[in-house]
Design brief:
The protein is built from 13 helices and 10 strands. The protein has about 325 residues and is an alpha/beta fold. The strands form 2 sheets. It has a 6-stranded mixed beta sheet with strand order 3-2-1-4-6-5, with helices on both faces. The chain is globular and about 70 Å long. The termini are far apart.
Length: about 325
């Protein structure tokens, strides 16, 4: 193997903080990225590795083929194999989600179940720098802030049970991973939907990114991925600044008004997220700021899930939904 094609030394640097003897999960779709990830995890000597594969119920026989391929791949070294299956279109219709959103939510729920079944607190996924760059562009086009632009992170919580997603390939390009797979003679499955323009991310990958590269005169992926990494670290730091102030059940309006606008938004988002158990969009935060900053009526605004934000006697508080009688 050519030295330049062997990603193991850099991979070891990215997982050096993780123990090798505790159970971990590798999410493997059968594609080149996740197969390379599995090979690197094995070479890094993670000794209690389980392979998890999720069937989205979207691609018929080709998806069945991928599931069997991953099952056989796990069997090559005797790794436990955990399979899951979901009805993505059914969920998308029921929850009013896009197919991509529904698939992602089903997949994350499966990985949480797989981790608990295996006794693992770490789930490895095979996202690379190209995925990170596409995430930056996707959320930029939707008007996202630093949290959205940096949402594909090297390490992030999967759920509230302490399970962590780790993405050690974010430091590698798609080209590097392909060269590694070739050098290691790895077999993998080609997902035919990756070339479809029906999905937003595929359009970004196949149309927008090449056009952007032509416009700026260089490959924008590494620098955009680095931007996401920088924003992720800054977002974590800013979250820590408001964590203490977000704990009380009520917020003092006068104290909030004295803070800079960015601090107000950050604090309100963290405080509201703790009160209603879900993230808050920009428009809702701005309505909350209006309630806090105005002395006029109405001193109330609607929040997701039937909650209401109210201002009374110089305090902000969240009113829970009324139970149906």
């Amino acid at each position: 193997m050519k030295k330049a094609a062997d990603l193991l030394p850099r991979f070891l640097q990215r997982v050096r903080h993780l123990p090798r003897t505790t159970p971990v999960i590798a999410g493997v779709s059968g594609g080149i990225d996740s197969v390379a990830l599995l090979d690197l995890l094995r070479r890094a000597e993670f000794r209690k590795l389980a392979v998890a594969h999720f069937h989205h119920g979207l691609r018929g026989k080709s998806a069945d083929r991928d599931a069997e391929f991953v099952r056989a791949l796990a069997g090559e070294t005797g790794d436990p194999f955990i399979a899951g299956r979901g009805q993505t279109r059914v969920r998308a219709a029921r929850k009013r989600e896009s197919i991509e959103e529904a698939a992602r939510n089903l997949r994350r729920a499966f990985f949480a179940r797989a981790a608990k079944k295996h006794g693992a607190t770490v789930v490895f996924l095979g996202h690379h720098s190209g995925d990170a760059a596409e995430t930056v562009l996707f959320h930029l086009a939707r008007g996202g802030g630093s949290r959205g632009l940096s949402s594909l992170r090297g390490q992030s919580p999967l759920d509230r049970s302490g399970i962590t997603i780790v993405r050690p390939l974010l430091g590698f390009t798609r080209q590097e991973i392909a060269a590694y797979a070739t050098a290691r003679r790895l077999s993998f499955c080609e997902d035919e939907t990756n070339n479809s323009r029906l999905h937003t991310r595929n359009c970004l990958r196949h149309e927008v990114m090449p056009a952007l590269a032509g416009a700026v005169g260089h490959d924008p992926v590494p620098v955009m991925a680095r931007t996401g990494e920088i924003l992720a670290a800054e977002d974590e730091w800013m979250e820590s600044l408001v964590a203490g102030d977000a704990r009380p059940a009520q917020l003092d309006v006068r104290t909030l008004r004295r803070k800079p606008v960015a601090h107000q938004r950050r604090l309100l988002r963290a405080w509201l997220r703790q009160r209603i158990g879900r993230d808050i969009d920009f428009e809702t935060i701005e309505r909350a700021r209006e309630v806090a900053l105005s002395d006029d009526q109405p001193a109330k605004t609607n929040l997701p899930g039937g909650h209401h934000l109210r201002r009374r006697a110089g305090k902000l508080f969240v009113e829970k939904p009324r139970r149906a009688k």
